[in-house]
Specification:
It is built from 14 helices and 14 strands. By secondary structure, it is α/β, with parallel strands linked by helices.
């Protein structure tokens, strides 16, 4: 193009502009430019117009709406970034500009600022909420590991798990830094979760791990796509990224954070020998407890047995009582028969006995008659007592009854006097009845 232009002595403005545009875009089709954002503004169309500057120069840049909406960082002044794209010219102003296709944070200070902003955003959404975290299973049958297939991390995890409690391990290999790493890590988490429940390859717990590195190297584990994939995981997940002092956003979203990949393996499975010894100890304690329990029951039953007489003793004692009653009954029968026999003999041999018996009975009868006579009404009246009754000959026992009756019958030994009670002085007037 330049050769063709060189043959001409005169050029149009468009020809020059086109030649420069072709030259620039051909030689700067893809560049990565590091600088600080300056003068950023968003047009009504959604496109962003800004500049990148350093100590000495200023480079105009544009980020079209479609690209801007998908950027992982916010475009704002003062942020040091690395912008990737192509250099093109704008003929209308005889200027050139960078068309941004990708934008990433440059410098640890800017990264830390972005990290804090994301952290606060995810906190507000509840992605780090403690009540959302799931319990890590005690004895997983299968462990899924998401990490680089090469390097010390996966070897350390496998070695540690085999030492503690050999368990099936399934590795989903992914890049753990660089462009596209975050998307592949998130896809691996989702991929494990999407496996059918009855699949032999579906893990009971996941470990996302990588070794130490700079903040830029570990940045994929701060990306939103990874944090949301961890939060949405139905499989309990352990994060083990970087060294113990490194804390990524994935650590807040994970169900459990391990300080190192080796620590994640230790959290995932117990020590088999310790578990075995613990079971032996528990088994021994159970056996001892059962032995003590039955031994106490035996002693209790023996104590009860000592307080209860033997069945043979009870039967013998009752037999002795029966023998005693039988002997006494026989003696009583014999004495009764003897008395009756003697009475019969006296009756047959001594008639005078009968006469004496009759006289005795008569005397007893007379005595009873005299006793009955002594307590009869006539005998009492003869001793000076009187029997007071009302007009209907109902016995009166006190003065109140006499006042109410008014007409009285007073019986003496030799007759009855009829009397009347007056209210004035309770005087008694009466007539003598004939004996009755």
């Amino acid at each position: 193009m330049l050769d063709l232009l060189a043959e001409k002595k005169e050029f149009t403005v468009s020809e020059i502009s086109f030649a420069i545009k072709h030259l620039v875009e051909t030689n700067f089709a893809y560049v990565r430019v590091k600088g600080e954002i300056f003068g950023a503004k968003r047009a009504d169309s959604g496109h962003w117009y800004l500049s990148l500057k350093d100590e000495n120069s200023l480079l105009a840049a544009v980020c079209w709406r479609g690209v801007a909406n998908s950027l992982p960082i916010k475009i704002e002044d003062g942020v040091e970034v690395i912008a990737s794209g192509k250099i093109t010219t704008f003929n209308g102003r005889s200027s050139y500009q960078l068309v941004i296709e990708k934008l990433e944070i440059a410098g640890e200070g800017a990264l830390l600022k972005l990290l804090e902003e994301r952290k606060q955003k995810f906190l507000a959404e509840g992605l780090f909420a403690a009540e959302h975290k799931k319990k890590i299973p005690y004895l997983p049958q299968t462990i899924g590991v998401i990490t680089s297939p090469t390097g010390a991390v996966i070897r350390d995890i496998i070695h540690r798990i085999r030492d503690r409690f050999p368990t099936r391990i399934i590795v989903w290999p992914t890049p753990v830094q660089g462009e596209g790493a975050a998307e592949k890590i998130a896809a691996a988490i989702k991929g494990f979760n999407d496996l059918p429940v009855d699949s032999p390859y579906k893990p009971d717990v996941l470990i996302v791990a990588r070794g130490g590195g700079s903040l830029e190297d570990l940045w994929p584990f701060n990306e939103e796509i990874v944090v949301r994939a961890v939060y949405n995981s139905e499989i309990p997940l352990i994060s083990a990224v970087g060294h113990e002092t490194d804390t990524m956003l994935i650590d807040y979203a994970a169900d459990l954070r391990a300080p190192t990949p080796t620590g994640a393996a230790e959290f995932a499975v117990p020590v088999k020998t310790e578990l075995y010894n613990g079971l032996l100890t528990t088994d021994l304690r159970i056996k001892n407890a059962v032995f003590r329990y039955f031994n106490e029951l035996k002693q209790y039953m023996e104590a009860l047995g000592r307080g209860i007489p033997s069945l043979e003793q009870i039967v013998l004692e009752n037999q002795q009582k029966i023998d005693d009653r039988h002997e006494r009954l026989q003696l009583a029968f014999a004495n009764l028969l003897k008395d009756k026999n003697n009475l019969i003999k006296l009756t047959n041999l001594k008639p005078f006995y009968i006469k004496t018996l009759l006289e005795t009975k008569k005397e007893n009868l007379r005595n009873l008659a005299l006793r009955l006579e002594s307590v009869s009404i006539d005998a009492v009246l003869k001793r000076g007592f009187a029997w007071v009754s009302d007009g209907k000959f109902q016995t009166l026992y006190n003065t109140n009854s006499a006042k109410k009756a008014q007409n009285l019958h007073i019986r003496f030994a030799d007759g009855i006097v009829k009397a009347r009670v007056t209210e004035r002085d309770c005087a008694i007037q009466g007539d003598l009845f004939d004996n009755w």
